[in-house]
TrEMBL record:
The keyword Nucleus applies. Keywords: Nucleus, Repeat, WD repeat. This is TBL3 protein. One of its GO terms (molecular function) is U3 snoRNA binding. The gene is Tbl3. Its main location: nucleus. PANTHER family: TRANSDUCIN BETA-LIKE 3, TRANSDUCIN BETA-LIKE PROTEIN 3. GO terms for cellular component: 90S preribosome; small-subunit processome. Residues 21-131 form the U3 small nucleolar RNA-associated protein 13 C-terminal domain. It comes from the Eukaryota.
Length: 131
């Protein structure tokens, strides 16, 4: 009977998720946006990533801070943000944040580097009608 083991594993995963949620909340409160972005991306939470981007943009000199944070992300994190912003761009309430991130990626990534991103073709095709 493995029911008890499975229940313990599920409970441990749930506890870990709660801890990460609390850590994310603390990072946002402390304005440690790079770590908050990384954690939200690792949790696969597009809406939370959007909230972090909005919080960065509300800061004084927010565009510059957004650039600094996006540039410091790893390639896989940038790919995840790219897939998230395709959805953000379709909504008029979130399109400005999506465009700010797109602008940062286009300014700081070489075209050859962008072509190496997984899903870049689909992302560009989805972004064109709304951009």
């Amino acid at each position: 009977d493995v029911t008890e083991t499975e229940e313990k594993e599920a409970q441990a995963k749930q506890e870990e998720q709660i801890m990460k949620e609390q850590e994310l909340s603390n990072l946002l409160h402390e304005k440690r946006y790079l770590k908050a972005l990384g954690l939200a991306i690792s949790l696969d939470r597009p809406h939370t990533v959007l909230m972090v981007v909005k919080a960065i943009l509300k800061e004084t000199d927010g565009r510059r801070h957004l650039e600094e944070n996006i540039v410091r992300l790893r390639k896989d994190q940038k790919e995840a943000v790219l897939t998230f912003l395709v959805t953000w761009n379709t909504n008029s309430r979130n399109c400005h944040e999506a465009q700010a991130v797109i602008e940062t990626l286009l300014k700081h990534e070489a075209p050859d580097s962008l072509l190496q991103y997984s899903g870049i073709k689909a992302a560009v095709e989805s972004l064109l009608p709304y951009t």
